[in-house]
Every structure is written in structure tokens, then in C-alpha cells.
Amino acid sequence: MKVDLTKKQPIFIFGSPRSGTTLLQRLLNSYKDVLIWGEHAGFLYDLSSGFYKVWKQRKIWMEKVSWERKLTYEYKNRSLQAWMNSFDKEAWMQEHRHFLEGLFCPKGLIGRNFWGIKEVNYMTGPGDNVIRFLHQLFPTAIFIFVARNAFNVLASVKRKVPTISSSLVVKIICERWKCQNQSFLKWHQSRKIRSFWISYEDLIKGDGELVRLLKVMGKVFGEEQRTVLGAKLGRGTSFPSDSYDERWKTLPPAWLATAYKSLGRVNREMGFRNPFVFSRLFHKKEKFMKFNGKKTQTIFRSMRDISVNDTMDEKQVINFCPRLKKCMFERVDNKILLLNLSDGNYYKLNESALIVARGLKKGSPFRRIRDKIQHEFKIGKRQATRDALTAIQTFHRLDLLETNLAKNGH
What we know:
By secondary structure, this protein is α/β, with parallel strands linked by helices. The chain has 2 domains: 9-269, Rossmann fold (3-Layer(aba) Sandwich), CATH 3.40.50.300; 299-407, no CATH class. The chain has 16 helices and 11 strands.
């Protein structure tokens, strides 16, 4: 159903930070009869709160009498006057509607059939009535919710603000994303408003729900819009290639663990793919989970909890030192978190195992790894050899090595 172009149509774009709202704003503004204003510090939150504070006060609306009637001598003598006001509910809405139109759709705005705003500071907590407020004032308005994979959003935030290091800040960012997108999804699925759900992945391709939105607006996705999507301006942190969907790999393991604990389920419910499957970090040997009626094993364990098998001897390792599979490392206190990128399992390592892991990743020979441990921890050659062998045997047991040493003939 297309919009009525004989009337000015409001459009409201909402999303979480780093989700593509600015890119969508620039794309829509590339059409000559569209004008979407930028962020405004979220002042509509206070405006909507004040609107509903009055709206819910029943005493104000008890006497349905015109303001002219209220000024008469007879009325003033017979009424209590404590809650006497010059407006009714319709006038209350009309004044707020005129206020917003005066700000974002002034009378001098000629030739613009679509006007609106984009903002990333709404629906960040309970009690936010901005969407309800705007829908009540503009029942025919188009609401556009822009969503992006939570893990890639977090990676984009980290790249935009590289000084973030506190785990508390990461948790706050995650909870904000969760609250916002759950609220947006709830409104979109309620069908109470005229809304479109556009994913960042579809947006940068000019595909999906974006095409349906443009069709409703009577627009065609053309060369000028492709130029906007391809421009570097406004997309300073976006990848130019298809690797944008794997931005999460730039996150530290500790951030990934925090994000999955807080956002994993919601991210999946919104139709996005979680980069790996794992649960909380426990000091347990193994944790079993039921999945599709089968038992699958998710491993979270410390190296001291794993018994070393005897499938490899010292001569075998010294003569043939394998490479480590694709992994990420992050230091947390005095321990090291290792993430296996192929299956998403996390392991907690000691500091000597970190040296071994780095050596195996580079393909360093065993003697060099052993000497590094000996020099780093000021220990004897025999002890360094034993520590290195233990770590390599453990990596082999956890299937973190590219070569199966148990079957190797060296």
C-alpha cells in the first residue's frame, strides 16, 4: 500500500548506535522530496513523559466544557476551578503535533513529501513512550527500525571508541542494545504501527526490506542510491568487502564472552547468526547441553583440570612440532582465555601454555618454545621441557592442532 503523496508523510528512523541509521538517513535524503533530520539528543523522551503525565491525570479531563464557557461568571462561581484548564485532549494532542511539525516540517519546507527524524537514543530503558507518543500524534507515520548483528555492533563501537577497556562499560553497551532492539522488535511485531524492519546486512546491499520500503514510498533504488552506499563518507568504520559480517573476530575474547551471555539469545531471535555456540565460563571439566534431542558437548575447562594422555612422547614432539588451529588469545588477570574460532569453544590457559600456543601458531620449533619458557619464568631446562610437553599434549587432546600427532610416524 503506497502512501498518500498529497499530504506530507512523517518518517521516524530508530535503531541502536552503530547499526546503520545514519546510512539509511543519507540514502533516503538522496531523493529530492525526502528530508530526514539527524539526531536531537533524545529530547522527545522528556516531551513524551510530560505529555502522558498530563494525559493520565483524570481530573484535568473531567469537565468537558469549552474554554469560552469556563470564562463565564456562572461557571466560575459554581465550579471548584482547581483543575480548570483551557484545553481538552484533542487540543493537547494538536499543540504537540504542531510543535513537532514546526521543528521538523516548517511551513517554508516546499517540495518535500516526506519529512522525519532519525535517533539512536530512544527505548533504552523501561518507561520510554516515544514510539507510542509519535504514533498517537501521527497515526499514518512510517516507523523504520534498523537492526544489526549485536556482535558486529559491539566490534564497531570498539573501533569507533578504542579507549573502552572496562568490562562494566561493555556490559552497559550490551544491555542498551538488548533493551532497544527488544523494544523495537516488540513494536514491529505488534502491527499497531506502520513499520519496516531493515537489517544492516540488507541495507548495505540495497536489498530485502529496503526495497519494499522504497516501493511503498513510490521510489526506485537507482544509481544515486548505489553511490551513497558505496561512499566512504559516513561509513568510516564499515568494511568495503563482505567481511563486514565477521567483524566480531576483532573483539577480545572477554568481550565476546560478555556479549554472548547478555545478547546471544536475543540476537538469535532477531534472525542474526551468533558467531559461535558456547555458554558461561565455568571451572568445570565438561558441561553437557541438550540440543535437538541430542547431547552435544561444550567444553570450558582449565588446563589444570585436564589429565594428560600418553599418546605422544618427547621425541615425537621435538622432531615434529605442529601448528595450532585458528585461535584468539586474551589476557584476563593472571590467566589466558583461548578461543577456538572453528567451533567457538573457550579454554582457560596458564601463562606458560600461552607461550606454547603463540609458538605453535607461528610454527616455531619445539626447542625455541622451550627456551622461551625457560627464559621467561627463570626455570630449569627439564621443567621448561615438561611444561611445554604438557601444553602441547593438552592442545592435542582438545583437537586444537592442525596435525593428528597420534597417527604421525615421526
